[in-house]
Write a structure and sequence with these properties.
- The structure is a single chain.
- With about 550 residues, the chain is an alpha+beta fold.
- Helices cover about 30% and strands about 20% of the residues.
- A hairpin with a 5-residue loop joins strand 16 and strand 17.
- The chain is elongated and about 75 Å long.
- About 50% of the residues are buried.
- About 10% of the residues have low confidence.
Length: about 550
């Protein structure tokens, strides 16, 4: 048995035995996988799922309403049947690479997408350049990512990304360009978070679809054009409803509906790859798995957990509650300044935290209905000197104008509707622009300046080297609004991204990639150590899984 396989087995065993009996674990998973929105869902039920449903019936009627038993669709309701080698559910940052990779390896591929177009978000996807990186440095990075993820990740999956991502990202860049995409390799330049992790060489391949408002969505649509030329058939406005399983429980196809509501079978000789995204727009699932984020806006749409429901009824196991989620705001002001420890205040104008806390973790201080993930960074006209040794890169006053809605200059590489950087000659004037109470704001700024003068942060304990007073006009503020961008926990898989059942055994014919896949993260918050890790994982595991399933 390989090192990776042993790590997968140990991880799965730890998850299934993490203080939970088999029955209570599956109960928790089941409660979280469905929603009242799926009350009319149809699906074929494996023998193991049927047994689980009977077990849940003992818990109470509410559970069954939450996770309704699917209705088997008879052949009399099937309008057509088509057969492929591989069927991919979801045309996004993992589904499109999976489809193209499978096609390039000789498979006949279908992609089912409930929307009318390919949909993906973000700009940056990262991988390691193995030719320029030292193995000791790679392992040091894996160790850091394990720590970032509260040591709950499956190390085999992290290594799979680390040792295959450079190849995969380069492949995505090349194939997307062939489809007409605007994309560049930024290399290691944007990887500010890796500083200090290791003294060994560590270099990156970093794809960037941009500048904004051009995004990875545009890039994946270009990649889909390359996939179509390779023979992949896309079926848009065709949401998948259920997985088809044979008598052994092996997944052998998908039933989907077209816009007219008719059912169609898409049979898969080699396997079905679920790449349907997360569940952030499914209130029932969110209330169970991420109840602490009830006051945060959702950044995406149509992420309703369809794939999770299908995987569950095929016997899949969702990671226990405590799902990893991504919350940030790279658009209000320069992303390179997001982690600089300037004074921060909440909506009331009150200082509320040691500003050395990274933006990716700031949501934990802003969960209330009053805050809803909103806060402001505040600094004065000496900020360039103050921030010269801080993480990231300080933009000059002239460069900041690109992020100022009040400045008449043309905005480039940003979403104009989301920029929120302001400047004022007085603290009171800045407070108004930031939406804070001026008296409260000025009181808190003055208190902070007193602490900076003494060099002792008696309120929150920030290091003197990170304390910068706000004294000299003009004064600046970046009003950031963190929204839920993605949920990155999912269904347990092995090293080949094959779904696992409650006994840790692979479910035949069923593979899961992207934000539906479990085990890669593990902490409550998504780590920003590697900039672009999320898309990098999606591209890499889509690329690897498509190739693997095609060769079965």
């Amino acid at each position: 048995m390989s090192k990776e396989s042993k790590e997968i087995d140990q991880y799965t065993a730890n998850v299934l035995q993490n203080g939970l009996s088999r029955r209570s674990f599956l109960t928790r998973a089941a409660i979280g996988t469905g929603g009242l929105a799926f009350a009319g869902l149809t699906g074929s039920v494996s023998a193991s799922s049927a047994a689980q449903t009977q077990e849940y019936a003992q818990i109470g009627h509410a559970t069954l309403e939450f996770m309704p038993k699917p209705r088997a669709i008879p052949d009399s309701e099937i309008a057509s049947t088509q057969t492929f080698d591989v069927v991919v559910v979801g045309a996004g940052a993992s589904g499109v690479p999976a489809a193209l990779s499978a096609a390039e390896n000789g498979a006949k591929v279908a992609v089912l997408q409930k929307q009318a177009i390919v949909v993906a978000q973000g700009n940056t996807g990262s991988g390691l350049d193995l030719k320029k990186s030292d193995k000791a440095g790679i392992e040091a990075l894996i160790n850091r990512l394990m720590a970032d993820n509260a040591h709950r990740s499956n190390p085999a999956l992290l290594r799979s990304w680390a040792y295959n991502s450079g190849e995969a990202i380069s492949w995505v860049i090349d194939r997307a360009k062939k489809g007409g995409a605007t994309v560049v390799d930024q290399g290691t330049k944007p990887q500010h978070g890796i500083k200090g992790i290791t003294e060994y060489p560590l270099e990156f391949v970093t794809s960037y679809f941009g500048p904004k408002p051009y995004t990875a969505g545009d890039g994946m649509r270009a990649l889909a054009k390359t996939a179509e030329k390779a023979g992949v058939k896309f079926f848009f406005n065709t949401p998948a409803n259920q997985l088809i399983q044979d008598a052994t429980g092996k997944v052998i196809g998908v039933i989907a509906q077209n816009r007219d509501g008719k059912y169609h079978k898409f049979m898969a000789k080699k396997g079905v790859i679920l790449a349907a995204g997360d569940y952030q727009n499914n209130k029932a699932m969110c209330d169970f798995f991420i109840p602490d984020l009830k006051n945060f806006e959702r950044k995406q749409m149509d992420r309703t957990g369809d794939g999770f429901v299908m995987a569950y009824w095929a016997g899949g196991v969702i990671e226990p509650a405590g799902h990893t989620k991504m919350l940030h705001d790279f658009d209000a002001g320069p992303a390179a300044m997001c982690d600089m420890p300037f004074l921060v205040v909440n909506r009331k104008g009150e200082r509320f935290v040691n500003e050395a806390v990274e933006m990716s973790l700031m949501n934990n201080y802003l969960r209330s209905e009053a805050d809803q993930g909103c806060y402001s960074q505040v600094f004065d006209s000496d900020y360039m000197e103050q921030a010269k040794n801080w993480p990231g890169k300080a933009y000059t006053p002239e460069e900041l104008k690109n992020y100022m809605p009040e400045d008449p200059s043309e905005k480039k590489g940003v979403f104009p509707s989301q920029i929120n950087t302001f400047v004022a000659e007085t603290l009171e004037g800045l407070a108004v622009k930031l939406g804070c109470d001026p008296k409260t704001f000025v009181k808190n700024v003055n208190r902070y300046n007193e602490l900076c003068k003494t060099g002792r942060d008696e309120d929150f304990g920030k290091a003197p080297s990170k304390m910068a007073p706000v004294l000299k006009a003009p004064f600046y503020g970046i009003r950031r609004r963190m929204r839920l961008s993605a949920i990155t926990s999912g269904v347990l898989v092995n090293e080949n991204h094959q779904a696992l059942d409650a006994d840790g055994k692979p479910i035949g014919g069923l593979f899961i990639v992207g934000n539906m896949g479990g085990g890669f993260y593990g902490g409550v918050d998504y780590p920003l150590t590697v900039f672009g890790l999320s898309l990098g994982r999606c591209y890499t595991f889509g690329y690897l899984t498509g190739k693997y399933v095609a060769k079965l």
